[in-house]
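pipeline/complex-builder :: batch 7 item 3
reading input block
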Amino acid sequence: AIWMTQSPSLLSASTGDRVTISCRLSQGVGSYLAWYQQKPGKAPEILIYAASTLQSGVPSRFSGSGSGTDFTLTISSLQSEDFATYYCQQYYNFPYTFGQGTKLEIK
Amino acid sequence: EVQLVESGGGLVQPGGSLRLSCAASGYTFSSYAMSWVRQAPGKGLEWVSAISGRGSSTYYADSVEGRFTISRDDSKNTLFLQMNSLRAEDTAVYYCAKRIEDRGYSHFDSWGQGTLVTVSS
């Protein structure tokens, strides 16, 4: 299985900040990576797929980059509704795997 | 509008069985692969199992291989997860998720609200 390491696990930031979350994989997956946002008590929601393609309806302040083993999710200017937990997931092969999550909290 | 509604969760003793269902609506169910993803209390997401459109292929996480069986009834627009030999570590909210492909890249574009499975004596 492909192992995924997200960092940081916890990120404290303020509204308006620019933040980045990293996802590193144990082997290359090309661009077969997606990012999800999850709020407490809710199902995850897709933000980005194919490493950098923004899902329809997702605000443009979210962006993704990277390929192979190193990927980044960037939020350019945090809004109050962005405080949540973020997960990366690889679709390169089975078993699909998720990163352990990054909780973004208000500083 | 796509809707996925899970059911069948509950309290079960270790070693017991449970069958989860996911009723889909708002799209052509048979055309899309589906997955189950779970989340233990306070923990992250764990992919559990996947089935191709029309059910010709199935895939499992090592942690459930041989104990869980994924299936689908396209005539009833319903996805299933038969869970046998349940363990305490299977306690989680179980989500069904619809997989979509765009230019060969897939992701889960729709999720159900989840159903809680608790394995405890």
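note: The two ends of chain B are 40 Å apart (CA to CA).
queue -> next item
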